[in-house]
Amino acid sequence: MKYSKRLLYSLLCFVLSASVLLTACSGSNTAKDTTVNKKASAVKEKAIKIGYQKNGPLVILKSLGTLEKQLKGEGFQVEWKEFTAGPALLEALNVGSIDFGRTGDSPPIFAQAAGAPFVYVAAGKTKYKGSAILVQKNSPIKTQKDLKGKKIGFAKGSSSHYLLVKALEKAGISYKDIQPQFLQPGDGRVAFEQGNIDAWVVWDPFTADTELNSNARMLVNGKGLSTDRDFFLANKDFANQHRDIIDIVLEEIQKSSDWANSNHKELVAVLSPLLKIDEKSLLLSAQRRLYGIDPLTEDIIKEQQEIADMYYKLKIIPSKIQVKDLIDTGR
């Protein structure tokens, strides 16, 4: 069959037009699919990054797995990041690699003095009973006054640092009259057992473990000297943008704390393999503390301010700070 040139040209134009139209429609659908996928990906990628330490209350929450269930309905995932010490956790909070964390009382003071952008969102219960100055059972050190001139191990800038300063102050001893040995818990334990230090200042569960397994005697605990609280902290930007998520986290911390307080046997079974500390020591530690959250009352803020003032007085931090400046007033 023969076709005229005009007819062939018309047929060719029709085929090309149809092809272009189909491509355009396909491209439009692809663009829509890409947009939908991006939106779904964005929702999926929303996460709260939580910094924790093995010996803190957040590891209990992590082990129970309840927070993940609660935040799933809010479109949030939970990413857990482990830290060996509070200062490193605060640095991560500072640079935004985590959004939320918990430390002892002293690391936030050093971070504030360095200008880190974080806020206090809640306080933990006092745990002074397990924070102590330890000596060997046969040590000639019988009272706090006997610490004068002695080598004393403790973690610099930690809650144990403050406890020691307050104990010396109560005994009328100058900080300059001791030989401070800056040691993290692991190194402090070795130095204590080998007799390289005369006393060791540390917190539970290390206190309990050393009392039961290393021939240690508690010279004094934190009663009347230090409350030794945990503090729950958040990156300032994250707290401003996601107050509802922070509230859910705090609620779940309290729930997991209630569980821990009522289930010591199960609690120590969870913690023992993580901390590599025997269950008997962990049980002693659990029995002399109460897990939970306290609001940031004026009294608690005052406690924290007194610690900051002491560090400034000793020239451990370079400038005087006001703790209240970093209290999250939105809750």
H/E topology pattern? HEHHEHEHEEEHEHEHEEHHHHEH
**Distance between the amino and carboxyl termini:** 85 Å
CATH topology descriptor of the largest domain? D-Maltodextrin-Binding Protein, domain 2
Radius of gyration: 29 Å
Instruction: Return residue spans where pLDDT drops below 50 for at least 5 consecutive residues.
Output: 1-43
SS content category: alpha/beta
Mean pLDDT figure? 87
Number of helices: 13
Described by strand count, sense and barrel closure, the largest sheet is:
6 strands, mixed
| Overall number of domains | 2
Amount of helix: 40-55%
What is the count of β-strands? 11
Strand fraction: 15-25%
- Strand order within the widest sheet? 2-1-3-10-4-11
CATH C-level of the largest domain: Alpha Beta
The CATH architecture category of the largest domain equals 3-Layer(aba) Sandwich
Let me know the CATH homologous superfamily of the largest domain: Periplasmic binding protein-like II
Shape: globular
Structural description of this entry:
Helix 6 links the parallel strand 6 and strand 7. The relative contact order is 0.15. Helix 4 crosses helix 5 (107-113). The protein has a six-stranded mixed sheet with strand order 2-1-3-10-4-11, with helices on both faces. It has a five-stranded mixed sheet with strand order 7-6-8-5-9, sandwiched between helices. It has helices spanning 5-45, 57-64, 66-72, 86-95, 107-113, 159-171, 185-193, 206-213, 236-241, 243-262, 264-275, 279-287, 298-313; strands at residues 47-52, 77-82, 100-103, 118-124, 132-136, 151-154, 179-182, 199-202, 216-221, 231-235, 293-294. The termini are far apart. The protein is α/β, with parallel strands linked by helices and 331 residues long. The protein is globular, with a radius of gyration of 29 Å. It is built from 13 helices and eleven strands. It has two domains: 46-125 and 229-326, Periplasmic binding protein-like II (D-Maltodextrin-Binding Protein, domain 2, 3-Layer(aba) Sandwich); 129-221, D-Maltodextrin-Binding Protein, domain 2, CATH 3.40.190.10.
